[in-house]
Amino acid sequence: MTDPIADYLTRVRNAIHAKHRVVEVPASNLKKDITKILFDKGYILNFKFIEDGKQGIIKIALKYDATGKTNAIKSLQRVSTPGLRQYTGYKDMPRVINGLGIAIISTSKGVMTDKEASQLKIGGEVLCYVY
């Protein structure tokens, strides 16, 4: 697999389109950090890291409204790819839907949202947009 982050986002996106409540993805430290950000910002209901002796699994409970038809995540979009990395400085931080969505940035201080990176005045690689 050449792009595990794109695979992670695609698995979550496909589970949303299929109206699944839970999705399982192979674990990595970067995927765990992205999952924690999605949970902290209210895009997913819950998550659990399962150690299986190999790579590990991340179980993600998706968040729906009261009717169960509308998901909290409208769009997951991969920005930086292995073939074309997208970097940004803190002054040129992308705004997703005029500040309503979040951009997940990989910085030297760890993985964080665009707003947190702007406050710390550090730039990094733009991994994805979520809204």
Q: Tags for this entry?
A:
3-stranded antiparallel β-sheet, 8 strands, alpha+beta, 5-stranded antiparallel β-sheet, 131 residues
How would you briefly describe this protein structure?
The protein has 131 residues and is of the alpha+beta class.
Structural class: alpha+beta
> Assembly type of the shown chains?
single chain
Count of discrete alpha- or pi-helical segments spanning 4 or more residues: 3
Helix and strand sequence: HEHEEEEEEHE
**Biggest sheet overview:** 5 strands, antiparallel
Low-confidence runs = none
Mean pLDDT: 95
Q: What level of helicity do the residues show?
A: 25-40%
DSSP strand tally: 8
Gyration radius, in Å: 15 Å
Distance from N terminus to C terminus (CA atoms, Å) equals: 26 Å
Strand content: 25-35%
Q: How does the overall form come out from the CA principal axes?
A: globular
Structure description:
25% of the residues lie in helices and 31% in strands. It is an alpha+beta fold. The chain starts with a helix and ends with a strand. The longest helix is centred in the N-terminal third of the chain and has 14 residues, at 4-17. The strands form two sheets. Strands 4, 5, 6, 7 and 8 form a five-stranded antiparallel β-sheet that branches. It has a three-stranded antiparallel β-sheet with strand order 1-3-2, with helices on one face. The protein has helices at 4-17, 29-40, 114-120; strands at 22-26, 44-50, 57-62, 76-78, 87-88, 102-107, 110-113, 124-130. The chain is built from three helices and eight strands. It is globular, with a radius of gyration of 15 Å.
